[in-house]
Amino acid sequence: VQLQASGGGSVQAGDSLRLSCSASGGTFSPWAMGWFRQAPGKEREFVTAIRFSDSYTFYADSVKGRFTISRGNAKNTVHVQMNNLKPEDTAVYYCAAHEGGYFYATDGRTYNYWGQGTLVTVSS
Fold first, then answer.
1. Strands 118-123 and 9-12, how do they pair?
2. How far is it, in rounded angstroms, from Cα 11 to Cα 31?
3. 108: helix, coil or strand?
4. Cβ proximity of 30 and 123 under 8 Å
C-alpha cells in the first residue's frame, strides 16, 4: 500500500492550500484516513481524519473552523482544504490510512500506512 500526498507549498498568513492524499495498492480499502503534522522541533500531532463508512470527520481544536477534510471522487482519496492559514500551521503534513480494527482518530499508532509528507510553510 502506498500513500501519495500532494499540495503543500509556501503561502502567506491568511491564504489557503489544499492537500490531497491517495492510497493505492492491490485491493486495499481504507476504513479511515487522516492527516498529522510535525513542526520543526516538535512532536507529530493529529490534524484531521475522516471515517469512510459514514464520512464522519475529526478535527484538532487548533484547526476547527479553518480546515475541512473530505473524500475525493477518486477511490481512496481524501482532501484537506486549509483556509486562513497561520504561521503556526507550518509543518510537514503526513497522510495516513487505517485499514480496520481498533481505531482512535487522534492516535497515530492506530494507522497502518503513512505517506511521505508534504511541507506547508506559512509566513507572516
1. parallel
2. 32
3. helix
4. no
